[in-house]
Amino acid sequence: MAKFRLDEVDHQILDILIDNTRTPFTDIAKKLKISAGTVHVRVKKMEEAGIIVGSSLTLDYKKLGYAFIAYVGVFLQKTSQTKFVLERINEIPFVTVAHVTTGKFNIFCKIRAKDTEHAKQIIFELDDIEGVYRTETMISLEESLNDKKRLMHSIFKEL
């Protein structure tokens, strides 16, 4: 498959959708002074090319009572246990992200909890997984940066 080429209009459409994936195509079209059909066709092509994959919803976890964030590095007894441990981690709904990593940890997780007591329960659950040697936890004091647009704009400059 040939590499899909994005032009400035595609960049502008993605820029708007990153801010709010639910923005109606008609609103995007008005803002960019193009037809809604053009927006639809371009988004469809980006989906078919695999550039746009689904859409996401952003929740305000503070309002839901889950403002506590911690990162947990997981040390395994053997790296051959990675798949098994990841399957067990996947059963813990408060672990929202898990990466297999190089370096200090075998697996690096992000957890969301109600408070420190709840976080402790989640961490103990991770510690109790067969094959986990130990864990190391870092508490997030605040999420200071979460900006998909900056990366997108850097990628666009390279294209």
TrEMBL record:
InterPro entries: ArsR-like_HTH, AsnC-type_HTH_dom, Dimeric_a/b-barrel, Tscrpt_reg_AsnC-like, Tscrpt_reg_AsnC/Lrp_C, WH-like_DNA-bd_sf, WH_DNA-bd_sf. Keywords: DNA-binding, Transcription, Transcription regulation. One of its GO terms (biological process) is regulation of DNA-templated transcription. One of its GO terms (cellular component) is cytosol. GO terms for molecular function: sequence-specific DNA binding. It comes from Mesonia algae. This is Lrp/AsnC family transcriptional regulator for asnA, asnC and gidA. Residues 6-67 form the HTH asnC-type domain. SUPFAM superfamilies: Dimeric alpha+beta barrel (SSF54909), Winged helix' DNA-binding domain (SSF46785). It comes from the Bacteria.
